[in-house]
Amino acid sequence: MLEIKNLHAKVEGKEILNGIDLTIGAGEVHAVMGPNGAGKSTLAAVLTGKPGYEVTEGTVLFQGQDLLAMSPEERAWAGLFLSFQYPIEIPGVTITAFMKAAVNAKRKAAGLPEMKTGDFLKLMKEKMAFVQMKPEFAKREVNVGFSGGEKKRNEIFQMALLEPFLSILDETDSGLDVDALKIVADGVNALRNPERSAIIVTHYHKLLEYVQPDFVHVLKAGRIVKTGGRELIDAIESKGFDQF
To answer: How confident is the model at residue 174 (pLDDT cuts 50, 70, 90)?
Structure first.
């Protein structure tokens, strides 16, 4: 699904990624762990096309397409989704209006007609129930006045509605309490299937107690220095990242 080869990237003239190699297959969940400043969020930003990040070397293929040649919108339409560390508020825009626009933009890019309002509302109701989101949230402005846990539940709802092929959770567990962590984990686990994959970017082990990754990668100084399974999480918890 995703193939990264020798990826180098700069931010404000400083090289942050120093040769990332990573392959993710369909249906796989990968955890990318590392200390602050290792390049984890930079990797997520580069994959989703965030402005200000300059790729200086390397290739990224997503579903066989050159991801780096695509605009951020094209990446989203192709099935890439980013869960933000700090979800933004959008005053004046309801969740219903926001998600209807997102769903129809994706359908348009695929050459499909817009979804009828009645069909969309039915689908939205089903997905809200799926992530245990209260129906009244449909009329609320996007993330305005939401608690941390409510913002995370809203993002999982967006994932469920958009059905991305690859979801990137960029330190989405930062600052969350146990209840909010379980919201994120339950959503990721519920959406797991043989066609959809996820990258969980984190420097904590807590979220990975609830979501069992297929592979764990340790990122340091812009490179993946170790790849393994659950044993890496245990090693990090006991001895930290300095051992690698």
So the answer is: low
Please check whether residue 39 is in contact with residue 32, taking contact to mean a CB–CB distance below 8 angstroms.
no
Q: What is the DSSP string of 172-214?
A: TTTT--HHHHHHHHHHHHHH-BTTBEEEEEES-SSGGGTS--S
Q: In whole angstroms, what is the distance from residue 54 CA to residue 202 CA?
A: 23
Which CATH code is given to the segment(s) 2-239? 3.40.50.300
* Model pTM score: 0.88
Q: What pLDDT digit, counting tens, does each position of 61-90 carry?
A: 999 999 999 999 999 999 999 887 778 899
- Kindly list the domain boundaries of the chain, sorted by start residue: 2-239
Cα 137 vs. chain centroid, distance in angstroms?
22
Dihedral angle at the C-alpha atoms of 170, 155, 68, 199, nearest 10 degrees?
A: 50
